[in-house]
## 1
Amino acid sequence: MMEQMRNKAAKVVVWILSVFLIASFALWGIGDMFQGRSTATAVAEVGDTEVSPTEVQEQFRRVVDNMRARLGNTFDSQQAVQFGLLDEVLDRIVNGRLVSLEAQRLGLGAGEAQIAATIRNAPQFRGPGNGFDANRYHAFLRQERMGEDTYVGIVRDEILRSQLTGAVVGGAAVPKSLVALLYRYRNEQRVADVVTVPLGDVSSIPDPDPATLAAFHKENAGLFTAPEYRKAVVLYLDPAERAKEIKPPEERIREEYEHRLPQISVLERRKLSQILLQDEEKAKQAAEALKQGKDLDTVAKEFGGGGPVDLGDLRQQDLPKDIAEAAFKAEEGSIAGPVKSPLGWHLIRVGKITPGTTPSYDEVRGRISDDLARELAVDALIKLTADVDDSLAGGTTLEATAEKVNARLLRIAAIDSNGRDRNGSPVPGIPSDPKFMQQLFSSPVGQLGILEETAQGGFFLIRVEESEPPTLRPLDEVRKEAIEAWKRTQLSDAAKKKAETVAAAARQAGGLAPAARTAELEARTSKPFTRFIRDPSSPVPDALAAALFKAKPGEIVVAPAENGTAIGELKQIVSADPASNEDERKQLQSQLESAIADDILGQYLVALRKHHPVTVNRQALDSVVSGGNL
């Protein structure tokens, strides 16, 4: 059993490295597992380590860049936050840190040779001769805006993580019988004759008489019922409003400016290219040839078998420490090295140097002041909640308490569960946090709710004055809508009645096609279709397809269609044979194994949080977007 788990774990290692690591870093993020306490305000604490704002910011920037490439340059960081991508980035980092800490606790390790072999054997970096292609490797680094030092660290962490997670999910096997059963279910096809009885023209239907319309209005009350409305009084402590009243001290703004310099400064960049050699002696000979005046291209071909590799326009922190020190000490146009790394010996040519820039205090003072004002406002509101509690505990009304603490008092005449008034317009000024609507519609009438904090750092307190239950709107108010709905119902009922008549005739005649001709309708034979995938031009609507997959050959069924009623006769069942498409069967098996592995891994991560507690600083996380130069 243990041997099977080891073998399975080895496969999982390859899978994790090739899919999670190279393709998307989707589960773990790319944080350094050995990062300990930092001096900056931590976004999260995982065990005895911290997740820094810079780490989250770098990964979030990568996500935003990838989304811009797909959706266009108008996509910005604020939209990414609204889509939940900032929280996803933090989750990835936290998950990676949890597994890394556990791997560290268990004493797992990865040597330089193992790291280098993992990179060299990655399929993404193989060239035409199936060997390691340095050009592809560095193109990947440029695309991901990642330094080699960072990537080597990622590989090291992933090896450690995969050693641990491989053992955890190593038993996620799927029985062949289950794969075959699901394959047959998903790929079974059916062929049917289909007839559609279309809806008629609404204008051909006369208006109903008053009694008929009144009865229709009553029988279909759900179509004409107004939602529940609530009347409420709300005390709202809004940090955005309070921030407008706060002017942070100048010395505090300057202190924050100094603190943010590493994040808002643009570091020096250098255009670098290199020769990567595996033999130290060859590297020394190449360096000597360069000193004697030969150019890098010539030396690269002579000693490396190809041209120099373009590393791109890099910052010092993008490179391994030793390479970075050599490359950033050298002058523009000169050669640095040879320098050793886990991948071999590097000779680096320094091209154009772009000096770093630091925004002046005056350039960013306004933004920093606004951020600090908001932080101070949140802090002030937290302290103010004690005054609110004391005031209410002393018998002061909600209205008087709001005036006492200078809070906004909202008087909502009528609001539904979607935050709209009787006219269907959004009610202005209410908190955007979903918890507000949840509490508003769950609180008993006449009772004061609890003081609730919003995700933005504000607070609200609700007293529901009245609850107006869902009410049938008077016929005079909805007469036009009721007449149109009645006419549509008449047309639908007529189409359904005709379809049932044709279906009955088809059963008597022994087939749908002759009955359709008699009714002056067209019968079409469908192409083979599955339960889940159909040709957009197929005459088989979803409801009819579902009915046909429950039918026996020759059976005739009726189902609603988008613009009428459909009739279908099942002509043929085409069974699916897993042996006919081995690639798809293997893909399905892989999907099932991945799903089971993900479920096991998810449970494992939950368990790890008990051993390595996780706390998140929401304010610091939000400042990743507002405080950096994304």
## 2
Amino acid sequence: ALADLPDTSVARGGMAEQEQLLQLVRAHPLYGAVWFFADKKNKLTGSLAKYPVALARSSLVIFKPITATAPLTPHATYPYTEIASYSATPTSFIAIAGSLQKPIKISLKLQRALEFADVFGMLRGGEW
């Protein structure tokens, strides 16, 4: 089960381990309940790529951008213990995941933000 995996194995695991984790995440009934895209800007070209993001029971899973030639594959997985902070405003919700050295910042519009805040708060509180 996801709860049996130590956070370090999730954060530092290779692609094979992350794929195993992803299989567990996909099997969880909550998988996909909160699903959204995070924009990541390329510093060199200035272009934006949309990264699919899934909220799972014990982690935030960020996928590589989907293209015609690349299937949906995990880009990074962050345990909730590594999610540094999150805050809600009337119009957006910002989550900062990952270590302080390599943070992932995700901004959402109001409708998705409220859903994300509700589920994210529930998961952090451990209420099931």
